[in-house]
Every structure is written in C-alpha cells, then in structure tokens.
C-alpha cells in the first residue's frame, strides 16, 4: 500500500513534512528542519507543466505577513524546503494562487483589500525585477453602512480562482463581490467585472467546476454555498436563486450562526460533484450557545451530475479546533484536516462515493497548522 507525504505550515517556525501509511494508520515525522518565513499561513504546490516537478522535489509558493507582507517562492528537494525568492506585497496577505501557465503567482491581501501579480522566472523563483503594481479594490460600502459593519469595514480580499481562459475570480469578503480580474501587461492586473453575492454574505473561497460552467463560493459571514453561472453574460452575475445550502452543522442553534466562520472549500479530485466545506469556531461559541462538541465539522456536499442542484449535505465531526487547513490527497482517497487552535492533524478516508468519511489517522501533537500540501 502507498505511503503518502504531506507538508504542514502555519504559525510555525519551520515547514514540517510527515508521512502517512494507511495500513498502519500512522502519521510519522519526516523532516522539521526547513526554516519558514513568519506566519506562512497558506501554501500551494505548483502543478503547471511549466513548473514540472522532478522525482525528488518541486516548487511551492507561500506568503508571510511580516513587514508589509510578502509572496515567497520555495524549492522542495527531497525532504528539505529552501526559500528561493521573496517579494513585498504591500498588505496583509492571506492567499497565494499559482497561474495555470506557470507565469506567476497572485497574492491577495485581506488587510489593505488589494491584490498583486508576481512573475516566476524559468528557475521557479520569484522575479526580483518586475514592476508588479498593486491593485487596490474599491470598497462598495464606502458611503453607506455595510450589512455586517464589524466585519465589512473595508474591502477584504481573499481566495483567487482561475478560469480556463485565465480570468481570475477574487473573493472580497468586505464588499460582497467576487471580482473578475485580467492580466494587464507584464505584471499588472485590472478589474473587468464582478459576481454579486447577497448583502452580508462575505465571499471567501471559490472553486470552478471542471466544465467551467459554474463557480462555487463558500461565504465566511453567512456560511453557505453560492453557485454562480459563468455562462451568464449579464453584468453583474448573480448566484442561482433556487440553490440553498448552509454548511453549518445542525448542532449549532440558529441564534449562534452569526458567530460561526466558514473557512475552506475544496473539491474531491476524483469525484467532481462532491465538495467539502470546513467550519470554524463552534468550540468558541458564547457559553449560552455551547454545543459540547469535541471539534469543528466539515460539510460534505453532493451535487447532481450537472453540478447545479443539491443532492445531499452531511456533516463530519472532526476532533480539530479551528479547521482552517483542509486538503484532499491527489488521488481523492483521503482528506487531511488541521486544527488551528488544537486537535492536531487528522487524515480521513472518504470512500468510493467521497462522502463516506472514516478516521484513518491522527496526530494531536502537530500544532498551529493553517494549511497542508500533499507531496
């Protein structure tokens, strides 16, 4: 049986690599000696043909929120990770997206409400010479009271998804929009339109269906899944009106929903109509709403074959507190989840349907994790 490897990052001083052997359910440390930039809370492994990995390594990209924030290029060789480049991003970065053609990365700043493109050189490192102008997002509630004033006090850029034509879709929690961006020149970006979320939804993470017809978004403030038809030529594009799917588990009373925060939305790479959405903060609800659960829940969403209707939603109870890191293995057999505040890292097998979750491995000692990359 195969042995898997994965890398964890977050509020940790180093990148740590672990192995997971399904036959023994053991998670074992492999390497913990590669220094990480400060608060490398999100990481992506390059899979573009232009950044093809060799047998003993590959290229990764991460962020750091130290000293004005930065995008960081990494080289994985064997079980060691080396920093190969670092560029300022002029804000508080939360997400990095690697362009499908391998030409660069896009870093979004939650603090500062902005986004920036940083080119990648032929060596897989970030260019040190590009102009890379910062694109600051307009705040649509500037002259009015936002639906959720405490959370929507400014534009707050988050996740970036890329369409087959290179169009970028940038979630803006503060403005209830998903901005459509295009490349401009060597290293610029510009806004060409937007997808309009309901007031107070707070878009966070997006996925684009394999056929390119739909964009799925999990909202941080309303904790639901929205589906936008990308074939709709009207401006702005609105979500499908008849699709309703909350990701909050039934253990949380409706009066406490506003305290919850959705986190990540991922596909099962083997089963295109199954999505996984992670919840946060159930263990940190006010005392009067305490549910007594041991960890946050992951919503398992099954769609119809065309991807525009809900078939079922079930909830998997993890033992992790603050599930922010969640990634499916490349073969779609396992999902790793990590607790930002406790519970360590858990590996779940998901079965043939993608919805039959069973705990396959756990290490409670792996702490302060906010993201995971399967290697």
From TrEMBL:
Gene3D superfamilies: YVTN repeat-like/Quinoprotein amine dehydrogenase (2.130.10.10)
Sample GO molecular function, one term: 6-phosphogluconolactonase activity
Pfam families according to UniProt: Lactonase
SUPFAM superfamilies for the chain: Nitrous oxide reductase, N-terminal domain
Protein family membership: Belongs to the cycloisomerase 2 family.
Name of this chain's protein: Uncharacterized protein
The organism's taxonomic lineage, starting at the top: Eukaryota, Fungi, Dikarya, Basidiomycota, Agaricomycotina
């Amino acid at each position: 049986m195969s042995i898997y490897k994965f890398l964890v990052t977050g509020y940790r001083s180093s990148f740590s690599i672990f192995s997971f052997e399904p036959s023994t359910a053991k998670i074992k440390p492999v390497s913990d000696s590669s220094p990480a930039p400060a608060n490398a809370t999100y990481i992506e492994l390059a899979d573009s043909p232009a950044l093809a990995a060799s047998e003993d390594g590959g290229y990764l990209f991460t962020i750091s929120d130290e000293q004005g924030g930065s995008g960081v290029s990494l080289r994985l060789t064997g079980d060691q990770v080396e920093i190969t480049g670092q560029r300022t991003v002029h804000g508080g970065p939360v997400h990095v997206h690697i362009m499908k053609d391998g030409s660069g990365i896009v870093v979004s700043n939650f603090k500062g409400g902005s986004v920036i493109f940083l080119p990648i050189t032929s060596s897989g490192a970030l260019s040190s010479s590009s102009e890379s102008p910062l694109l600051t997002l307009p705040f649509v509630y500037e002259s009015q009271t936002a639906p959720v004033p405490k959370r929507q006090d400014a534009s707050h850029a988050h996740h970036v998804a890329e369409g087959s034509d290179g169009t970028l879709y940038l979630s803006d929690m503060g403005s209830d929009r998903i901005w459509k961006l295009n490349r401009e020149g060597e290293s610029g970006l510009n806004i060409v339109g937007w997808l309009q979320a309901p007031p107070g939804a707070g878009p966070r993470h997006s996925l684009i269906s394999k056929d390119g017809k739909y964009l799925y978004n999990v909202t941080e403030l309303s904790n639901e899944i929205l589906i936008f038809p990308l074939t709709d030529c009207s401006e702005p594009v609105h979500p499908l009106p008849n699709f309703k799917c909350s990701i909050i588990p039934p253990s949380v009373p409706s009066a406490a929903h506003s305290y919850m925060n959705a986190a990540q939305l991922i596909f099962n790479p083997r089963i295109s109509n199954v999505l996984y959405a992670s919840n946060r903060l159930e263990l940190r609800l006010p005392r009067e709403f305490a549910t007594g659960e041991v960890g946050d829940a992951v919503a398992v969403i099954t769609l119809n074959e065309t991807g525009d209707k809900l078939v079922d939603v079930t909830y998997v109870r993890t033992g992790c507190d603050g599930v922010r890191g969640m990634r499916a293995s490349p073969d779609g057999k396992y999902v790793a989840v990590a607790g930002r505040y406790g519970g360590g890292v858990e590996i779940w097998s998901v079965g043939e349907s993608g919805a039959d979750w069973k705990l396959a491995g756990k290490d409670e000692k792996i702490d302060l994790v906010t993201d995971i990359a399967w290697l």
